[in-house]
Amino acid sequence: MRWTRAFIPTLKEDPADAEVVSHRLMVRAGLLRQVARGIYSYLPLCQRVILKIDEIVRQELERIGAIELMLPILHPAELWRETGRWDLYGPLMMRLADRHDRQYALGPTHEEVVTDLVRHEVRSYRQLPLSLYQIQTKFRDEIRPRFGVMRGREFTMKDAYSFHADEVSLDATYGEFREAYSRIFTRCGLAFRDVEASAGEIGGDVNHEFMVLVDTGESVVFSCPSCGYAASSGRAEAARVAHEPPAGRDAKPLEEVATPGKTTVEEVSELLARDPSEFVKTLLFQMDGRTVAVLVRGDREIDEEKLGRALAVDRVEMAGSERVREVTGADVGFAGPHGLPKDVRVVADYSLAGRGNLVAGANRTGFHVTGLEIGRDVEPEDWIDAVRLVGGDPCPRCGTALDETRGIEVGHIFKLGTKYSEPMGATFLDEDGTQKPFLMGCYGLGITRVVAAAIEQNHDENGIVWPTAIAPYEVEIIPLNMDSARVVEAAERIYEECRAEGLEALLDDRADRAGSKFADADLVGIPWRIVVGDRGLESGMVEVARRSARKDMARFSPEEAVQHVRANVIRERRGGASEPKSG
After folding, report:
1. Which of 130, 215, 506, 531 could in theory staple to 543 by disulfide, Cβ–Cβ 3.0 to 4.6 A?
2. Strand order through the sheet with 94-97
């Protein structure tokens, strides 16, 4: 392709609304243009990257026997109501009505639609297992679209669904998809880790996220350097200790102290000269129509994903200030765990296990209590793991200090069990002659997220540094002087030889200054470049450099340059330098 025909509208300045590197560089390098918040046009360079990722995905899923199909984007509300997710998804779902006032949604995911298909077509265990997938646009009405294509309202995803007669079959297919994802991300040239994760609205107790490891990632990952345990922040477990206080500890009486205007742990800690770890935070939540008081150590924070999973509820909402006053008799900031109404469920996080002589709200505005003992002054109904971990916390498996890193979620796989098949009446005739619900798995992979994650992980101060396997082109030929017939002729010959050798070549045939061409080459990030100039041609040479190490320029004859690039590109097409990292 010639640059003058390729439609690559590069920009010198950063877009004002770009918060992350990938968004900034995708706009500047001419990959992306915004239509509305969270909605983008993918320009030709970006589309070439997407198609390459699509092809890698298709090859690896075909390898494990998954079958491609295409499901509708427009979903009737009735299907989602069968599983209860029409209400559960809430405002995140893009909804519309037709001319007959029938309700529809633009699909954010396709569990209901694919289950409806299979329940009408698959009758017997002999037709199982079955794995179906598609690569399609998805829609989610994000309250705050941001980070370019990483959190948009319209995006491209590969979603797959598997159907099984038994757990053994589901386990086997789940493992095959997990291995396929590792191969996909390795071939895309990404450093990643698969981690235990939270299921969210999709469901399923067993699930794993695939995280591309970057400092700017919006997800937090905890991993153990000793035993290999790894989990997202919403799933990472806290190490558990005994609930009972140490034998022989002297309990102190419960005493009320004045703390006027001090509503935070930090403020009361300073006033009473007590460490925040010696406090109990009493947080009130509304869950399934009931008020729940969650007790956590004063220096830790609640993770609402973990809290909802620990208490087996779908929706967790902080109680409003009026409800706090109604329950405790005090303003927000003075709630305590003792003396709460009997209809309030009290649960305690493991962070409080074995601790005593604690400071807590007094359930009286302007006052706290000291000397609080769990087991004497308050008896939790349950002990749960709901705290958000921090780096250095002990591994729940072996006790080693956990490492904290950040990542971008690019894939998520789930064992769904019968979450969708049972409510939708999706059954098959088993070998013993009985009707049974399908066991299901689902497997999501964000195609456009992979594009952004690859840029977040592969860039420098000058632009993108594409892994060869997903680069829009593999080699760029840069003639330095378009007024020189010798330079133009040599560049054209190299361009044609590259194409004849099967290389994806981009010829920068613009009549621009060399400096401008080099700046755009760095910005766009094609993995290899061949530079053709008058001075080099005087000795029969051109210069070859890799984008990731452009200072290490080597000189070859034009024919040798093409073969040198070809040999490297063939090797790099097989996958990036990173190895799979499993948790």
Report:
1. 531
2. 74-76, 103-106, 94-97
pLDDT by position in tens, the chain (length 583): 999 999 999 999 998 888 899 999 999 999 999 999 999 999 999 999 999 999 999 999 999 999 999 999 999 999 999 999 999 888 889 999 999 999 999 999 999 999 999 999 999 999 999 999 999 999 999 888 888 898 899 999 999 999 999 999 999 999 999 999 999 999 999 999 999 877 666 666 788 999 999 988 888 999 999 998 988 888 888 887 655 555 556 788 999 999 999 999 999 999 999 999 999 999 999 998 899 999 999 999 999 988 988 898 878 899 999 999 999 999 999 999 999 999 999 999 998 988 889 999 999 999 999 999 998 899 999 999 999 999 999 998 998 999 999 999 999 999 999 999 999 999 999 999 999 999 999 999 999 999 999 999 999 999 999 999 999 999 999 999 999 999 999 999 999 999 999 999 999 999 999 999 999 999 999 999 999 999 999 999 999 999 988 778 899 999 999 999 999 999 988 764 433 343 3
Helix (H/G/I), strand (E/B), else coil: 39: strand
CA 536, CA 524: separation in Å to the nearest integer?
25
Task: Give the pTM.
Answer: 0.85
- Count the neighbouring beta carbons within 10 Å of the beta carbon of residue 121: 9
